[in-house]
Amino acid sequence: MKIGFIGAGNMATAIIKGIINNGFVNCTDVYVSDRDEAKLNEIKKSGVNTSADNNYTATQADMVVFCVKPGIVPAVAKEVADSVKGKIVISIAAGVSIASIAAILGADAKIVRVMPNTPAMVGEGMIALCENPAVSEAELNTAKSMFDAVGKTVVIKESLIDAVIGVSGSGPAYIYMVIEAMADGGVLCGLPRETAYTLAAQTVLGSAKMVLETGIHPGKLKDMVCSPGGTTIEAVAALENSGIRAAFVDAVKAAADKSAEMQK
Fold this sequence. Notes:
- By secondary structure, the protein is α/β, with parallel strands linked by helices.
- The chain has helices spanning about 10-20, 35-45, 55-60, 75-80, 100-105, 135-150, 160-170, 170-190, 195-215, 220-225, 230-240, 245-260; strands at about 5, 30-35, 50, 65, 90, 110-115, 125-130, 150-155.
């Protein structure tokens, strides 16, 4: 399979490197186009084919991935409409619905909408996919397999994409704030700054892995750390007094609402 990427930004680069390193595709079967020559020169080091011509990329590929900013998607879709007929078209642009792309490419276009997040850049992304009826199960599985190379994937209904953006799409920013705040607390208590960041970040990473690999409810895992009258339950009480749960629920809802507003 030959895969074309229109756009060579950070997310495109992460996906390309992931699918090559995991053996999903050979570098010579990847085509990338971008108007930024510096970005093309950088990604070309991976051994992929590069071009400034989006139509060339779309023509060469069996599957085409739109990795451009949301406001540019309509123009790109119009530009390559003839070149992508009968091919799987994937869009990672937030706020751009399948229907809006189909309105340009045609009702029979095979479109998969994808919501990745930035940890895909280190192979630990969380990627949600949804498709239109023109995409077969086998074609959806092919798209899913590609994104499995840069993290975990789930298939959802498009109606849930705003919720996904609220939780995982925007979620890394919330967690970076948590890591920074935990480190600040450590520094307040005398830890060197870099040591505090390492302690906080690894604690978040390990805790997330515990949830994913044990399947134990997060609340129960929390209880396992809280000894009666101990340090952890004291800290948990302080977090509850500060309204930590409501703050995160409100954050997810705010991001989801903004995502829905962007699509109107």
